[in-house]
């Protein structure tokens, strides 16, 4: 079974199998790993999501897993959860080798997940959620739920996670941290040996975070292993026995307990020297186009955003997923009402009560979720492009199809939209071409402020380059471009300046000469730039 | 006309031919006139329903509104001496206001269309019955409104004026729905409200407008129905008429999820439904089976339509896999 020369126990072999390991002893190391991955590789079309990755997990060990957006964390989770099959590599559980795990394998091996988006039924109570689908039943043809037994089974679990709520509380009445405890109790109920927490603290207030970290320590004391995925490095620092850093789908390094510190983690997360800036433009930014003063959004009602976007610049808006960037963009585009604050357009205050107001003011948005918000898949290319500007294509509010088609043809050749005709349904086009249709609908009008929310997510490299070129061209003509992006290379390569958001506010603005990955990352996790 | 409309038209002709062969009375002018009168009455309210269904909504209070507005209209002109043109306008405005209220509850207070209009169904029926103390609203002996009667229940060259009214409304709404900016917005909202909003469309207002149009057309058909029956017992008048409208739309190729359907489609649906009613009468099928026949035909129609789509998708897939170059 170990014919490949790979052993599951610690020591020299482990160091060999993990290049870059900074290994010192920890108490967990005396026990054999019950789960290990060896040389796992997973690719998606056009992307290597995980490559040559190995890890061993021993009982009672808390492993911190850090890395930028897109470093391969979710791929790793999917492989462990049995949702994705690795292209190559080996998964060994209790000495049994698997090429891939199924969801059943994963469950039976005691791997439990607590996702960032909790999977609880808010309308059911705590006990029902924990044993959903596995309720103890009374005999008889009706298969009634044995409520007394259910309670009996739930109480010790709640005690173990230190719950301060009862088993019959509806989940809708629990705080987020309490809901996470329910998830953890659920994990315990399936006799989990490994609990994977994905960004559990990202939306928790401090006191609740402390409580959750306490629960993690409790799990550890019971001999249950934990993988703790977080962008909050100080929490990782405080709770992890070992930190694994992922970068571009590869293991960037492992930090043993005494080597875990903030700077080391950031250094490993960045690692590579980034490609040179693709934005070599020498254009001078003009006056302030859009000024946000004290804008508050529903995501972080107690934080305010202050931000100026200049004419003729591309302002990158970086930050971690969930830092409130999209919510800010939605307010500027009039989709959501702000909870407070003011917006100024070329120095004049504007009140946006709907997206129609924003469009009338020349504020356009290319949304993050193309299929949900960007385009109408069942509409033709021409109909999508004309939609925000139908008044220009109609006389006495009767639409002129000819006028629509002429504009669409012009945009089609201008942007190089690859479609058989402008009458083609947008749903049949590729992602990159769909995104160009979204762009075309705004470029056919006169933009003053263009907001891009993750403009190149899920599109191929060729289309990416063209979209960057278009953004530069827009800025060259004096349009203020605000680009929200979680792609570090994009943020640094395309922007003239970068504002970084952290938990609902701007944590810093980097000018051209300060623009590097480390500074962006430091600001994104709430530290100050160097 | 798209392929679905042509299919429906063929079905209407075939059913008509079969009925005419079995019972030649089907083609008598009197029968055709009666049927086209009913097509006119139901067609007007079905077009109203169509506007709402396009947005992905539904309007269930149509039947109750027909009773309430009909009772009010007759009461105003028969008992209160209001000039009928004024009463006519008043009822249309009232229908519009009720539609606006529904639209407001749905778009601003985010209530579900089904719930809002279901409550409307109960409320308006209750008010109609209360208003007449469960009695029958009608005209006194000898009361005449020649112009109104001509416009609503009269005929021109043997064609019922209600049917002519439907043709005019069809023409206007066809332009509105299929050629105007507003119509395009409604389809966009029905297909993907979020994307419509992200294109700078005031989706709330547009949806409200659709309910207003539905309310006005329902009010118009309420007047036509009132003048057709000339007496209204508010407990039963207009019962299930919303379902006739929804059925006509579904038969005509509308998706209840919104964004799909056409004026021609909903009219063809209405024609088929009335033809079926007529069939039940003419072929001596017990009239108690009326609804069962309608339900059965709609079910079969929708099934055939859906299976046809599945078949076409499969064929397309087959063709694509066969024509794809082998790697």
From TrEMBL, chain A:
ABC transporter domain sequence ranges: 35-273, 276-528
Keywords: ATP-binding, Cell membrane, Membrane, Nucleotide-binding, Repeat, Sugar transport, Translocase, Transport
GO molecular function, one term: ATP hydrolysis activity
Superkingdom of origin organism: Bacteria
Listed Pfam families: ABC_tran
Family membership: Belongs to the ABC transporter superfamily.
Protein name as catalogued: Monosaccharide ABC transporter ATP-binding protein (CUT2 family)
From TrEMBL, chain B:
Transmembrane segment boundaries: 36-53, 60-78, 84-106, 113-131, 157-177, 207-227, 239-256
Domain of life the protein comes from: Bacteria
Annotated GO CC locations: plasma membrane
Membrane topology listed for this record: Multi-pass membrane protein
MF terms (GO), sorted A to Z: transmembrane transporter activity
Keywords: Cell membrane, Membrane, Transmembrane, Transmembrane helix
Compartmental location: Cell membrane
Name of this protein: Monosaccharide ABC transporter membrane protein (CUT2 family)
Organism of derivation: Phyllobacterium bourgognense
Phylogenetic lineage: Bacteria, Pseudomonadati, Pseudomonadota, Alphaproteobacteria, Hyphomicrobiales
């Amino acid at each position: 079974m170990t014919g490949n020369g790979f052993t599951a126990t610690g020591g020299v072999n482990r160091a060999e199998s993990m290049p870059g390991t900074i290994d010192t002893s920890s108490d967990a190391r005396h026990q054999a790993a019950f789960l290990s991955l060896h040389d796992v590789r997973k690719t998606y079309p056009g992307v290597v999501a995980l490559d040559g990755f190995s890890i061993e997990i021993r009982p009672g060990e808390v492993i911190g897993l850090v890395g930028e957006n897109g470093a391969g964390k979710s791929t790793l989770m999917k492989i462990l959860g049995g949702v994705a099959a690795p292209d190559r590599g080996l998964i060994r559980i209790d000495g049994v080798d698997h090429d891939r795990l199924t969801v059943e394998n994963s469950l039976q091996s005691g791997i439990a997940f607590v996702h960032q988006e909790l999977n609880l039924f808010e309308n059911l109570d705590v006990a029902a959620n924990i044993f959903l689908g596995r309720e103890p039943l009374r005999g008889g043809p009706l298969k009634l739920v044995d409520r007394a037994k259910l309670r009996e089974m739930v109480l010790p679990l709640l005690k173990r996670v230190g719950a301060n709520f009862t088993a019959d509380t509806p989940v809708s009445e629990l705080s987020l941290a309490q809901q996470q405890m329910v998830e953890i109790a659920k994990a315990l109920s399936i006799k989990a040996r490994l609990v994977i927490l994905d960004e559990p603290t990202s939306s928790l207030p401090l006191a609740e975070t402390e409580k959750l970290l306490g629960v993690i320590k409790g799990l550890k004391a019971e001999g249950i292993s934990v993988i703790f995925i977080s962008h909050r490095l100080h929490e990782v620092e405080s709770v992890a026995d070992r930190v694994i850093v992922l970068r571009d789908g590869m293991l960037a390094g492992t930090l043993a307990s005494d080597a875990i510190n903030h700077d080391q983690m950031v250094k490993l997360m960045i690692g590579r020297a980034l490609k040179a800036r693709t934005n070599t433009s020498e254009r001078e930014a003009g006056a302030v186009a859009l000024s946000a003063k004290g804008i508050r959004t529903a995501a972080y009602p107690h934080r305010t955003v202050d931000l100026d976007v200049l004419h003729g610049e591309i302002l990158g808006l970086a930050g971690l997923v969930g830092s409130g960037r999209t919510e800010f963009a939605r307010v500027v585009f009039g989709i959501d009402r702000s909870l407070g604050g003011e917006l100024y357009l070329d120095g004049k205050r504007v009140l946006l009560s709907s997206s129609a107001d924003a469009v009338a003011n020349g504020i356009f948005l290319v949304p993050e979720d193309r299929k949900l918000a960007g385009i109408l898949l069942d509409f033709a290319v021409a109909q999508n492009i004309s939609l925000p500007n139908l008044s220009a294509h109609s006389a006495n509010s009767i639409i002129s199809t000819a006028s629509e088609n002429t504009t669409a043809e012009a945009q089609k050749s201008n942007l190089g939209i690859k479609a058989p005709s402008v009458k083609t349904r947008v749903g049949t086009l590729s992602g990159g071409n769909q995104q160009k249709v979204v762009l075309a609908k705004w470029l056919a009008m006169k933009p003053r402020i263009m907001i891009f929310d993750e403009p190149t997510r899920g599109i191929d490299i060729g289309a990416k380059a063209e979209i960057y070129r278009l953004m530069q061209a827009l800025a060259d003509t004096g349009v203020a471009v605000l680009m929200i992006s979680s792609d570090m290379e994009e943020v640094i390569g395309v922007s003239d300046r970068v504002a970084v958001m952290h938990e609902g506010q701007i944590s810093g603005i980097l000018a051209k000469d300060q623009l590097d990955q480390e500074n962006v990352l430091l600001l994104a996790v709430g530290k100050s730039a160097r | 006309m798209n392929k679905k409309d042509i299919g429906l038209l063929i079905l209407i002709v075939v059913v008509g031919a079969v009925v005419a062969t079995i019972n030649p009375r089907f083609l008598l002018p009197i029968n055709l006139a009666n049927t086209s009168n009913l097509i006119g009455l139901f067609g007007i309210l079905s077009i109203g329903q169509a506007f709402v269904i396009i947005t992905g909504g539904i309007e269930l209070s149509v039947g109750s509104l027909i009773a309430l507005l009909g009772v009010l209209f007759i009461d105003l002109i028969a008992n209160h001496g209001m000039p009928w043109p004024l009463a006519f306008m008043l009822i249309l405005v009232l229908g519009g206001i009720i539609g606006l209220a529904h639209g407001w509850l749905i778009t601003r207070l985010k209530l579900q269309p089904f719930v809002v209009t279901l409550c409307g169904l109960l409320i308006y029926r209750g008010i109609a019955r209360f208003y007449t103390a469960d009695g029958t609203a009608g005209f006194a002996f000898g009361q005449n409104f020649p112009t109104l009667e001509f416009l609503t229940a009269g005929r021109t060259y043997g064609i019922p004026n209600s049917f002519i009214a439907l043709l005019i409304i069809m023409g206007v709404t066809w332009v509105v729905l299929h050629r105007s900016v507003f119509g395009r917005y409604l389809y966009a909202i029905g297909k993907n409200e979020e994307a419509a909003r992200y294109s700078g469309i005031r989706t709330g207002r547009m949806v409200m407008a659709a309910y207003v149009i539905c309310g006005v057309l329902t009010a118009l058909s309420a007047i036509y129905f009132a003048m057709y029956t000339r007496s209204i017992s508010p407990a039963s008048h207009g019962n299930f008429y919303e379902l006739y409208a929804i059925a006509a739309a579904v038969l005509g190729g509308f998706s209840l999820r919104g964004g799909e359907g056409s004026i021609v489609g909903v009219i063809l649906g209405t024609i088929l439904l009335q033809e079926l009613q007529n069939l039940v009468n003419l072929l001596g099928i017990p009239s108690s089976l009326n609804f069962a026949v309608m339900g059965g035909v709609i079910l079969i129609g929708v099934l055939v339509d859906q299976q046809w789509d599945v078949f076409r998708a499969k064929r397309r897939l087959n063709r694509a896999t066969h024509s794809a170059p082998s790697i």
